[in-house]
Design a protein that fits this description.
alpha+beta; 31 helices; 16% strand
Amino acid sequence: MSRSGVSVVSVSFQKWNDDRALSFEKPDTKSLKFLATLVVIALAYIGAVDLGLATTFENKLSSALWPASGIALAAYVIYGGRVWPAVFVGAFSPFAPYYNFSHIDAGLLISVINTAAPYLGARILRAARFDGALQTPKDVALLAIGGAAIPMALEATAGVAALFLTGFVSGADALPVWWTWWVGDAVGILVVSPLLFTWRATPRSGGNALYLLEVVAAFLSLALISMYSTDSGPAALLAYMPIVLWCILRLSQRENAIAVLLVAAIVAWKTIDPARATHSLNADLTSLVTFVGVLSITALMGGAAMTKRQKLEDERLRDSMNRLAESESRFRNAFDSAAIGMAIVSLEGRWLRVNATLCKMLGYRTEEFLAADFQGITHPDDVLRDVANAKLMVEGLLKDYCVEKRYLRKDGAIVWVILSASLVRSADGAPLHFVSQIQDITARKQADMRLRSIVESSPSPCAISDGERNINYINQAFRKVFGWELDEIRTFENWSQKLFPAGFDLAKFERDRRMLTGDSGTQRVAPSIEMDLVAKDGGLRHTIAAMTLLPNSATGERIISLQDITELRATHDQLRESQKMEAFGRLASGIAHDFNNLLGVVYASAELLQDRECRQQDAQTSARLILRACERGADLTRRLLIFSRRSNSRPEPLNVMHMMDDLITVLRRTLGGQFNVSVSANCDDLFVFADATQFHTALYNIAINARDAMPAGGSLSFKVERQVGGLAQQSPRDIAVISISDDGMGMSPDVMRQVFEPFFTTKEAGRGTGLGLSMVYGFVKETEGDIRVDSKVGKGTTFTMRLPAIAVPQRAFKSDVQPPQAAGGYNILLVEDDEDLRSATTLQLQAMGHAVRAASSTAEALALVEEYGDFQILLTDFRLSETMTGAALARIVQARLPGIATIVMSGYLHPEDARQLDQRWALIEKPFAREDLVRALHHH
């Protein structure tokens, strides 16, 4: 190659060389230090060339191990592209004497190639962010592929091409020369460069003698194996692997690189020594290259993997230590700044650590705490329990415990606390110490004691229960009223069985309890409820119970206060009955007047019928008058029975207007002529499902209150209407709205707020009990409705009842039901103790075409059954003058005549009487019309 060619190469290298070259330092090209660096690199390269030339073969044109490439690559990586002149000088030095300058152009070309290829490898490593410490498998792979394999393949290709063009290599030798060139340079890089990189990048050890001894032992072992091994091929790796693994696991990458270089040097020396070579030179050198390359990659990759693993483990350990330190710091901060007392106590009971809150709580300094044990400041009565619990925790029988206990302050005062203690164990389960949390509850305890003293002196029965539903305290009034002692009803199982009667709604009681403890709400006071409780003597005590969650209670304690209203309830019932009797007396006077009028009609009409000269037309008119009077009399009797009935609630479909008509008739007689009673309605088919007696009583009570509000008389108006839309949102049911208005004196807002409360009244003593409107309110709520009151002083009052409406019952209107025709032909046994009614009924049945045998008593009826025994129907009164009822008679007759049908007649059936009737029997109410009798007979 000419001088101009050298200039072109020089200019190109200067262009590649920039400040961003991958390096560990950026030398100043004008400094003496840099010039010295160039000289050292050139001399090192020349020395490496001499070693490489010792392994050349194939007509001395290629080398199996070329360490100079490793020096060149390391120089470029460490110092950058500025050191190319030193590399070029080293690369050209062997060619001048070897070729005697006869082929200077080929030497120059190959020197340029040997200078450029390592620089290309350095650029590849720079682009891939190569780390010369070789601490990761990635960096080792980058060195092997990007630093050795790729650039050296290009170098070998260019070099062989130059030799072929200049005639130094024939076509037959080109491939072997290329192969050994490429592998020799690549292996030279893998052997030399790692040592230079790691020696520069890895920090020196701290002079650890044990580590240095281990390094020397490893190197000596490798040297001995290399010197006395008879094989340098890949199979020889098996002999080296134990020591290589030792180096990988125990030594750093720098020592691994030294080990590889040491083994490579010894093996190469044995290979090129004619006295020691065992095969042909070419075969031995190929085996050498393969062995050294595999050994280098294995050692470097294993060392990098171990380094990376060790680094990760070190990072994890460091993170764990940091987290542990941070956790300990948080614990110390939380411990020291906690708002409650915190303490660490030894297994022997010594205080190991306490926070400022506990010191302040008990009045001791920290050093005084640490010089004492927990028994010294614990109340004597609580020491044994604490010791027992601590022993159970150490033995593993108790995980932790929480108790109320007492400490003794330094000044002698007693401090009540809640102590929560747990045991800390080591990793192997051995107990280490106790951790205690101590909350001062002295103020709450004092308040509880004051509360207990108040509760104990209360005249009302009181009890205190905890969150586990156990009763912890009852006062003297509780023991006096119910007779139970605390130990007899302490647990939930005991008091729920002994205090509550059968059928008590315990589920509702539990809902109230959960509401107090915060499970389903935030109320601290549960609604008062009425309930019967069983005393120890078996008697029932009717009470009003209220539950209140005790303030600042950590265990969910609540006080249950009871108001014994057994006597009050009896008085209430008596007052209600007396009020009803007072109203009944007024009602009876009006009804007596109507009933006398009816009897006058019957009396006059009957006398006219007895007159032999009575005309047919007059007889029919008299008969109609008698029938109408009987219907009116039956209606009056029914009203009296409804008003006076004392039975449990029996809801049934009620026609509101029919009920109102009955009420208006009664009120007009009861209130007197100075009151104008009116009713208006826009619906005749409005039905509600309610108890008839309670319905009448509710409206009557409102009317009586209106009368008292109008002492000089006035107007009382009723209005009935249907309102579309239910009481609740999205309810499809309509509402029956009943308004009762008066023009009396009215009520103030304060009175309106209390108007429905029991025993509240504005009347003077002896004029009322205050129970009427509370009964109205109870009826409305039981019917799932509501009631409102609107009143102003001097402007009158309006009560508005809103009750859920129901569909029209199928048998609502009698006019829709056609009475059946008389069947005729039945053999009927009639049993009736009233002679006149028995005679009239017999005539009525005979007129229908039936055969009738009548009896006045059960004995006579049974005799007729024995005598004739062909009866098809038994028609009997329920209330006979004997001890046997009609129901009992019917069962006897049915036993003797299994096929006989039964019809029971009654003017009024008490609920207990109605339960005696068989579902297959027909019931006909007295007085009954002909069509009612025909319908009952047709039913059978």
